[in-house]
Design a protein that fits this description.
The chain has 289 residues and is of the alpha+beta class. It has eleven helices and eleven strands. It has helices at 4-12, 16-24, 49-52, 58-63, 120-129, 161-165, 178-191, 243-246, 255-260, 263-273, 277-287, and strands spanning 29-35, 38-44, 80-81, 91-94, 103-107, 133-138, 151-156, 172-176, 203-210, 213-220, 249-252. The protein has an eight-stranded antiparallel sheet with strand order 3-4-5-7-6-9-10-8. The protein has a three-stranded mixed sheet with strand order 1-2-11. Strand 4 (91-94) and strand 5 form a beta hairpin.
Length: 289
């Protein structure tokens, strides 16, 4: 069985940069707001500007080496082969730019595009192998800072308000056996629209396993970043919501954005980026979720 906490401890002992970023989490500012009928967090985390400000257009991706490929990773970065857990094809890595107190990245061994099709069983298996963690997937235009390399992430489950609440009006929750969840997800995936130029529906996915019971939460999306995204004018905010944000913890790398962001603004961003409540209700009814 994987011992992520021990792996994290061993990794930070030999990687000063990552250790410094994890230590800095003790000093990040956090506030709680009410949005979408549940408590949410807003975190001021300067180190996350690497992700929030990432250029993910095709030209930028082509111009930089992929930081998830084994050949390009820092010499200090350790890895665990998940094949030992019966999940071939993935590495477990410590994320050097953490949001969670225990934050991991789970890239595919092969450099292949970020696509969830055919991999939902892998996600469920990883959740079963890491029962104290939320496994999450960001679509290529839904917060993934490496849309050119397939990967999941994992963070301790007690961090995300949505995991604690169990549901959100902008999300769909799927429960059941692993086979039932996979079947329901495939039907949901097929029912979601695919925008011109995309290869899969826009979505974020969170998956947990508690006491052997798997729960999957899917957040269908219709837009990548809010209209306010940017840092060129005072009105803009460097806010690029991904699974963690949709899970109820909005991450702001700039202090001015942390100060401004409140519950009503979060609700406006979610309304702009996600399907409407009516669309979610229709999907839930149509798919019997």
């Amino acid at each position: 069985m994987i011992d992520p906490a021990k792996f994290l401890e061993e990794q930070l002992a030999v990687w000063p940069m990552a250790a410094g970023n994890f230590a800095a989490l003790a000093n990040v500012r956090v506030k709680e707001v009410q949005a979408c009928r549940m408590p949410m967090k807003v975190q001021f985390n300067p180190a996350r500007i690497v992700s929030s400000g990432a250029k993910v257009d095709a030209a930028s991706l082509k111009a930089r080496p992929c930081f998830l490929c084994e050949a390009n990773r820092p010499a200090e970065q350790m890895q665990i082969d998940l094949a030992a857990e019966g999940i071939p094809g993935y590495w477990l890595l410590v994320n050097p730019f953490p949001i969670f107190p225990r934050h991991f990245t789970i890239p595919a061994k092969e450099h292949t595009p970020q696509r969830i099709a055919g991999r939902i069983a892998d996600m469920i298996a990883i959740a079963r192998a890491m029962p104290d963690y939320t496994i999450f997937y960001n679509g290529p235009r839904c917060g993934a800072s490496a849309p050119d390399h397939m990967h999941f992430q994992a963070g301790n489950s007690d961090f995300l308000p949505l995991v604690q609440a169990g549901h959100a009006p902008y999300a769909l929750t799927i429960k059941g056996s692993a086979d039932e969840i996979e079947d329901k997800f495939i039907r949901l995936y097929a029912a979601l629209p695919i925008a011109d130029g995309d290869e899969e529906p826009m979505l974020n996915i969170l998956c947990t396993c508690h006491y052997g019971r798997v729960t999957m939460t899917v957040v269908p999306r219709k837009k990548h970043r809010p209209a306010c995204y940017g840092n060129e004018t005072p009105e803009q905010m460097l806010l690029s919501p991904a699974s963690v944000d949709m899970g109820g913890a909005f991450i702001t790398p700039l202090e001015k954005d942390f100060e401004r962001l409140d519950g009503p603004m979060i609700e406006n961003v979610i309304d702009e980026l996600c399907l409407s409540r009516a669309e979610i209700r229709d999907l839930r009814k149509h798919l019997n979720l």
